[in-house]
Amino acid sequence: MIRLTEVTKTFPGTSKPAVDKLSLSIGEGEVVVLVGPSGCGKTTTLKMINRLIEPTSGSITVAGQDILSMQAHELRRGIGYVIQQIGLFPHKTIAENIATVPSLLGWDKVRTDERVAELAQLVELSPEFLDRYPGELSGGQRQRVGVARALAADPPVLLMDEPFGAVDPIVRANLQDELLELQSRLKKTIVLVTHDIDEAIKLGDRVAILSEGGHLEQYDSPGEILRNPANEFVADFLGSDRGIKRLSLIPISEIKLDPGPVLSRRATREEALSVMARYDIGWAAIGDGADVEGWFTADDLEGHKTLRDVKARSFQIKLKPEDSLREALDAVITSHTAAAAVFDGDRYLGMATVDEISREIVQ
Amino acid sequence: MTTGTSAFTIAQADEPFIRWDWIGRNLDDLWAATQEHIVLTVIAVGVGLVVSLGLSIIALRWRKTYTPITWVTGILYTIPSLALFAFLVPITGLTMLTAQIGLVSYTLLILIRNIVAGIDGVPAHILEAARGMGYTPRRMFLDIQLPLALPVIIAGIRIATVTTIGLVTITALIGQGGLGFFILRGLQFFSAIGTTQILAGTVLSVALAVVADIGLLGLEKLLTPWARRRVTA
Questions:
Q1: What are A79's strand-pairing partners?
Q2: What is the ipTM of this complex?
Q3: Shortest Cα distance, chain A CAs vs residue B224, angstroms
Q4: Which value, in Å, is the radius of gyration of the alpha carbons in chain B?
Q5: Whole-prediction pTM
Q6: With respect to CATH, is domain A252-362 assigned 1.10.10.10?
Q7: Confidence at A68, pLDDT banded by 50, 70, 90
Q8: Do B125 and A132 touch (CB under 8 A)?
Q9: Are residues B106 and B76 in contact, defined by beta-carbon separation less than 8 angstroms?
Q10: What is the spatial distance between Cα B199 and Cα B186, in angstroms, rounded to a whole number?
Q11: So what's the pLDDT on residue B128?
C-alpha cells in the first residue's frame, strides 16, 4: 500500500541526513509502528508520506502512485492525519472540525451531516458535543475528534504522529484499545509514530525500529522482535525487560495449564493438607472436574474432617484463555497465590503457574 | 492688557460657563458634524484596513519586507499631523483626500502590526493539521489563520478607530474635521459661546470614541463565539 524506496532527507543547513536511504514496505490493512529514540527520523519519515516534508531523494508510492506526481493538497485529502497536539480548529465546532476534509472535497451538506453523525458514533462521541467548540472538551474527547476528523473522507491510509502522547496514561491505554477495536472493523493502512516501545508492541502488526539517521534496524512483528532482536541496538532499545514485555503478546491458551490443587467435597482434611504441601501453597480449590466453585485456606479447615461443609471463597480474579501471560503474571503476583485460575466461561481449565509463565520469559 | 483678555474676563463675569441655548439652536449642525465625523473615521479605518491587509499579506508572504514596511509606516506614524497636512495641502488642496491621506497613514502601523502578530500567533500545530488535511495556502489563510487572528486584529482596529476619531478633529484645519469644526471655531471666541462650542465638539468626539470602542468590542464577541466558551475544569 505504501512503499518507500531509498528515501533520503537532508534538511538544509545540515550535513548528516535525517533519514538515509530508507526502504520500507507497508501492506494494505496493516498497522506499522515507526519507533526509535529522538533524532531517528521517524516523524520525518511519516511526514514525507503526506509530503509535509519533501524527500531529498528516493521515491514514495501510495497505492502504487508516486506521491510526487500528484498535487500535495490532493494527496493529503486522501490520507488521514492525526498529530499529538491534535490541532483541532478552535474557532470551528466539533461537527465542523470533523467535516474538514469533506468540506475541502466539496461534499454537500446532507452527505456531510450524515457522515459526521456516523463518525461521532464510531468514535463514541455523544452527539451533544457536535455543536460545541474544541475548548469545551477534555483531552481524551478531543483526541477522539481528531481521529474522527482524520477518518472523515474514509481515507485508506491513516498517518498518526504520536497520537496519544499528550494524554495521561489511563486515557492513553483506553484510546489505544479503542484504536485497535476501530482498526479491527475498518482495516485501514495505518502508519503510527511513537517513542514508546510498549505502545509500538501493543498497536503494531509490524514494528520498524529506527536508529539515528533513519536507519532501519529491524522490521518485524512485535513477537519476533522481542524473541529475536536483530542486534545490540534493538535489544537495548527493547530494554532488559523485553522477556516480560513479550508476555503481553502471548495468550494464556499457548501455555500448559497445571490441573491445580483441586479437591472434591468428599476429600478429607489430611488429603487437602497433603495436596497443599505438594504444591507448596497455603490454599486449594474445591470442585469436580471442570466445575470449580471456589477455594479455601488451610485455616478454613479448622474443625472440619472432610471438605463437605467448608465454605468456598470465590475467585477474585478469573483469567480467560485469551488473556495475555502478562495479565496472568500480574494476577499471580498481586494475589500472592503462586497460581491463577483460568476459566472459559464457567468451565475451569486449570491454573496458570509462575513456573509455566516464566518458562516463556526464558525462551 | 489686550482686548482678548478683557473680553474673556467680561465673559466670565457676565455669562454662564456653558451657553445651553447655543447648543439648543445648533442641534442640527452638531448632528451633521457628528455624522461627518463618523464618515471620515469609517473611511479612514476602512481604507486603512484594506491597505494594511494588503501590506500584511506581503509581509507574511515575503518576511524580509516586514521590517521595511514597519519602518515606513512607523515614520508616517511619527510625523506630526499638523506638519503632514501642511505638506499635503499644496499638493492635494483643502480636500477630503488630503484629510484621508493623513488619517489613513496613521492607522497603518497599528493595523499592520496587529494583523501580522495575530496571524503569527496562530499555533503551529493547528497549521500543521490544516496542511496535513489538504488545505491550500490561500484557503488556510481565509478559513483558519484570519478567523483565529480576529481577536488581535479587532484589538488593532479598536486602537486605530479611537485614535482616528481624535485625529479627525485636527483635519478641521483644512476645512474637514467633523466635530473638530466646532472646536476650531470655539477657539476664536473668547466667550461662553466659544467654550460651549469647544466643549460640545470635544464631548461628542470623546463619546463617539467610547461608543465605537464598545461597539467594536461587541463585534469581536459576536464574531468569536468560540473564544468565550471554554471549560474551566
A1: A157
A2: 0.79
A3: 7
A4: 22
A5: 0.79
A6: no
A7: very high
A8: no
A9: yes
A10: 9
A11: 95
